[in-house]
Specification:
This protein is mainly α. The protein has nine helices and six strands, in the order E-H-E-E-E-H-E-E-H-H-H-H-H-H-H.
Length: 287
């Protein structure tokens, strides 16, 4: 049974398996912009999943053999060609299938699509969220925009709730403002990220238990910086919020306690649920 390309919308069969090296594999996963249908997070490939040759440049291959008959993908190659076909329906994007395109613009490692309306293509790319067009002589390829940021999700409450548990951007900002002006005076300062994005990163770690490598790639910082930000903000939030009384009164607990608990565990006051989250230990524990 043929293995189809993992890039969303592409139906080419065969291709290159995802690299085993974690950092390089993460680059592939992020750049193809495929989301897990269940978790809505970053999709993870299986051992047989592939990206077809249409998404790699000629420069990504080492050519050998008689008259260049053999092509082998370079070990550090990353897919970079993501092309859109001209569509008669505005604001809709369709991925080009190799068998739908005139053979004059297809070769064995690169797919190029002739596009007649730049404005329409730009609109299609905008609709995909976080993609901008980059025009070439015979086609259009797309590249991912900059780092992950809470500001990009202002009008996307579903994703904010998924990443942070807050209902929407307003609730996120309410919590951020409750932390006070001290957010700008933390012991560890990351100048490349705003305090809001540092909090966003920390909440993503707590909510989704995302790996430091993935967070470093999304926010364009080093893994050690991710670890320092997470530790700094967890300690900071603890000191800022520790005075809040989170324990309900005995009467409230009794009123809301299930009948089965009232019968079997009448003295129950609270149920603790904990999740162990491994993080990278900084060399300086005072940071």
């Amino acid at each position: 049974m043929p293995q189809y390309c993992s890039v969303p919308g592409c139906r080419n069969s065969g291709g290159h398996k995802f690299p085993e090296e974690k950092e390089l594999q993460l680059k592939w996963r992020v750049i193809i912009k495929r989301r897990d249908t269940t978790t809505k997070g970053l999709w993870k490939p299986g051992k047989h999943d592939v990206v077809c040759a249409a998404h790699f440049k000629d420069a990504d291959y080492r050519v050998s053999g008689l008259l260049g008959s053999r092509k082998r993908l370079l070990p550090d190659a990353v897919p970079s060609l993501f092309l859109f076909r001209e569509s008669s329906t505005p604001r809709s994007s369709k991925y080009s299938r190799r068998d739908d395109v005139d053979s004059s613009v297809v070769n064995n490692v690169q797919l190029e699509v002739e596009v007649g309306n730049e404005a329409e293509v730009k609109q299609e790319c905008d609709d995909l969220g976080g993609i901008e067009p980059m025009h070439q002589e015979m086609g259009v390829q797309c590249t991912i925009l900059g780092r992950f940021s809470i500001e990009n999700l202002v009008n996307d409450p579903k994703r904010i709730q998924y990443y942070t548990s807050f209902r929407d951007y307003d609730h996120f900002m309410l919590f951020f403002n409750c932390l006070g002006p001290a957010v700008n005076e933390l012991n560890y300062q990351c100048l490349s990220l705003t305090p809001k994005d540092q909090l966003f990163m920390c909440l993503m770690k707590l909510r989704q238990n995302k790996e430091g490598l993935e967070l470093s790639f999304l926010f364009e910082v080093s893994e050690s910086t991710v670890s320092k930000i997470v530790i700094t903000w967890i300690n900071f939030m603890y000191f800022q919020l520790k005075e809040i009384n989170i324990w309900p009164s005995r009467d409230i607990v009794t009123d809301y306690m299930p009948d089965d608990f009232k019968y079997k565990f009448a003295t129950t006051r609270v149920i603790l649920d904990a999740t162990e989250t491994p993080i990278q230990k900084p060399s300086n524990v005072d940071v």
